[in-house]
Specification:
Function: Catalyzes the decarboxylation of 3-oxo-tetronate 4-phosphate to dihydroxyacetone phosphate (DHAP) and CO(2).
Strand content: 15-25%
CATH architecture: 3-Layer(aba) Sandwich
Shape: globular
Keywords: Carbohydrate metabolism, Lyase, Metal-binding, Zinc
Protein name: 3-oxo-tetronate 4-phosphate decarboxylase
EC number: 4.1.1.104
Strand order of the largest sheet: 4-3-2-1-5-8-7-6
Number of domains: 1
Order of helices and strands: HEEEEHEHHEHEEHH
Distance between the termini: 29 Å
Oligomer: single chain
Number of helices: 7
Cofactor: Zn(2+)
Helix content: 25-40%
CATH topology: L-fuculose-1-phosphate Aldolase
Bound molecules: 1,3-dihydroxyacetonephosphate
Structural class: alpha+beta
């Protein structure tokens, strides 16, 4: 995709996520790899009101080379790209149910593999990294270790970060993660029938 197509797609996907409540206020940020480096949403911008001419431009070494100041989560985005070679785009959201899961004190798998699309888009399990304040560079090593396990990571008391081969696939996976977290809450007090090991393996294969 050309630079201008990527800009248009980033704005469209940001608006779509915002309009459907996956992001509120100025929470969340998006980035996509370009021929010259990366395009990223500006810090303190709303995903619902991005503009193609007002996106942060970073070079291959993540130096800010044009446009407004990038999101404060550059360290997190960079960690995910550098850990996952297939990553061409990264979506970070504070969507409600994933963030609710991220605040649970319980240990163990946080979102069960109940549906095929969870397994297909997100994987069998989603690792969680401990809490760091937004924008902290200290999350780097733990996030790299978690991102090595799969395309989606839960950030304790914060939200999610998800990689994809395109902006669309990263956004689809982030939405699937959010809906799977909703299902986990809806079914919290019910006897559930998770996918079997064979069913999960068939989807992963
Ligand atoms: P930015 O406005 O700097 O992108 O930060 C928003 C956010 O989601 C922090 O986690």
């Amino acid at each position: 995709m050309s630079d201008s197509e990527l800009r248009r797609q980033l704005v469209e996907i940001g608006a779509s996520l915002f309009d459907r409540g996956f992001s509120v206020g100025s929470a969340g940020n998006l980035s996509v790899r370009t021929a010259d480096g990366f395009l990223m949403t500006p810090t303190n911008s709303s995903l619902g009101r991005l503009s193609v001419d007002e996106l942060a431009e970073l070079d291959h070494r993540w130096r800010h080379v044009g446009g407004p100041r990038p999101s404060k989560e550059v360290v997190m985005h960079r960690a995910v790209y550098e850990t996952r070679p297939e990553a061409q785009a990264v979506v970070h959201l504070h969507s409600t149910y994933v963030t609710a899961v991220s605040c649970l004190a319980e240990d163990g798998p946080t979102i069960p593999a109940l549906t095929p699309y969870f397994v297909m888009r997100v994987g069998r399990e989603v690792p969680t990294v401990p809490y760091y304040r937004p924008g902290s560079a200290e999350v780097d090593a733990e996030l790299r270790a978690a991102a090595a396990q799969g395309p989606a990571v839960i950030l304790a008391n914060h939200g999610s970060i998800v990689a994809g081969e395109t902006l669309e696939s990263a956004s689809n996976a982030a939405e699937e993660l959010e809906v799977s977290a909703q299902l986990a809450f809806l079914l919290r007090d019910r006897q559930v029938r998770p996918l079997t090991e064979d069913q999960i393996q068939e989807l992963l294969d």
